[in-house]
Structure formats: C-alpha cells, structure tokens
Amino acid sequence: MDIWLTIGLLIHVATAVAIIGLVLLQHGKGADVGAAFGSGASGSLFGATGSANFLSRTTAIFAVVFFLTSLGLAYLANLRPATTGSVIDRVKPAPAAPVSPSDVPPPSGVPSSAPKASEVPK
C-alpha cells in the first residue's frame, strides 16, 4: 500500500507543477487586444487561436488528473488503521533502576542530621 501512496504522491506533485506551468504559459484576456494590432500571434506554431485551445485543453486534462489523484490519495490515506489513545499512551516507560535507601537524598528543607521518624521519642 505504501508504494501506491508514493506513486500517487509523485503523480500528484508532477501534475500540480504541470498545471502551474501551463497556467503561466497562457495569455490573459488582455493579450487579445495586442493580437488585433499585429503582434504576430497568427504566425505561431498553433495558429491564431490554436495555442489557447491546446493549452486550455491540456490544463483541463491535468486538472482532472490532479483531482483524481487527490481523491485517490485521500482514499488510500483513509485505509490506514486508526490508532486509539494519545501518543503519550503509546510510549513505553523506561525501566526503573533499583534504588537502595542510602541513595535517596533527604527531602528538601530537612537537614540531613535530623532524626528519622523511628528515632523520634513519643
């Protein structure tokens, strides 16, 4: 399943980059006025209106592929098993080292020369 996520993600990113490039190549609506005064658009590779149709259709095809990969990636990501609890619950506690009573420091605020509770007279 992870290989399909990787392949889908690569196709998704490549399609997004292609859409960005195609949109940047297209002329805006203001470019039509420049073509009317002889800017040479009629002598282009695709003809006067051929490049706009070609780029628009190619952009539409890439947009459909982008939406399909979006849906596919969402479906594949939703197939993963859901985990319950929080991340802290899944952390294993470190094993405790045995502690001898002589290694335990006295509580703060109590001088070390104070008598122990068993030595205090009642």
Topology:
Layout: H1 2-25, H2 31-36, H3 50-78
Helix pairs in contact: 1-3
Task: Give a description of the structure.
This protein is an all-alpha fold and 122 residues long. The protein has a domain at 1-29 and 50-82. Helices cover 48% and strands 0% of the residues. The chain has three helices and no strands. It has helices at 2-25, 31-36, 50-78. Helix 1 packs antiparallel against helix 3 (50-78). The longest helix is centred in the middle third of the chain and has 29 residues, at 50-78. The radius of gyration is 35 Å and the shape is rod-shaped. The relative contact order is 0.10.
Key features?
single chain, 122 residues, mainly alpha, 3 helices, 48% helix, rod-shaped
Structure, briefly:
The protein is mainly alpha-helical and 122 residues long. 48% of the residues lie in helices and 0% in strands.
* Number of helical stretches of at least 4 residues: 3
Strand-pairing-aware structural class? mainly alpha
| Largest sheet properties | none
Which strand-content bin applies to the residues?
under 5%
